[in-house]
Amino acid sequence: MDRQSIIKQFEPVKDNLLNILHALQNSNPENYLSVDDLKLVSHYLNITYSSVYGVVKYYSMFSLKPRGKYVIRICKSPMCHMIGNKEIIDGLKETGYKLGETSGDKLFSVEETECLGRCAKAPALMINDKTYTALDRKKLKELIQSIKLNEQNTK
Ligand code: FES
Questions:
Q1: What is the rounded average pLDDT of the residues 54-74?
Q2: Taking the domains of the chain in order of start, what are their residue ranges?
Q3: From ligand 1's centre to the CA of 109, what distance in Å?
Q4: What average pLDDT score do residues 119-146 get?
């Protein structure tokens, strides 16, 4: 579906700004919003480009740079930090994925995020729209492995 058709699924009202941005980003195989996307949204909703840009910059789930197919967002807020997000970051590094980077095969990008609202089951992370909790190094590696296997099987 082209960018215009994605946008037109939504009523042209400001309340739909976040939904439209999500839909555009999710439909991009590189998981980001381009300058052209922001211009389209600005025109469609009749709001300034800088308002759209401001919203995209405010929410950490949006990106203006190409990312991997899977965006791993590690919670860096206090509970996860205390309980062991370093274990998660180190575990990812052992599997070849570093915080702040996109893997060479463009499969994973690793980012940090604020609290995911799952503090009781820390440490937590999100991979795209799904949250994973009570993680340790072993569970994390199994999770990454299962995504990679799934990707190989769908090729
Ligand atoms: S502190 Fe990590 S989910 Fe709340």
A1: 94
A2: 3-58, 70-153
A3: 20
A4: 94
The pTM for the full model equals: 0.85
Q: Can you tell me which atom of ligand 1 is nearest the CA of 75?
A: 2
CB 69 within 8 A of CB 109: no
Handedness of CA 49, 54, 55, 60 (dihedral sign): positive
In CATH, 70-153 is 3.90.1640.10: no
Alpha-carbon distance of 5 to 90, in angstroms, equals: 42
Residue position matching structure tokens 């909790």? 133
Å from CA of 119 to ligand 1 middle: 4
Neighbours of 59 (CB within 10 A): 11
User: Could you give the 3-state DSSP secondary structure of residue 102?
Assistant: strand
Ligand 1 atom nearest to 85, measured from its CA: 2
Angle of the 17-27 helix axis to the 35-45 helix axis, nearest 10: 150
Of the chain, the end-to-end C-alpha distance in Å amounts to 21
CA 126-54-65 angle, to 5 degrees, is 55
111 strand-pairing partners: 73
Which atom of ligand 1 lies nearest, measured to the CA of 78? 1
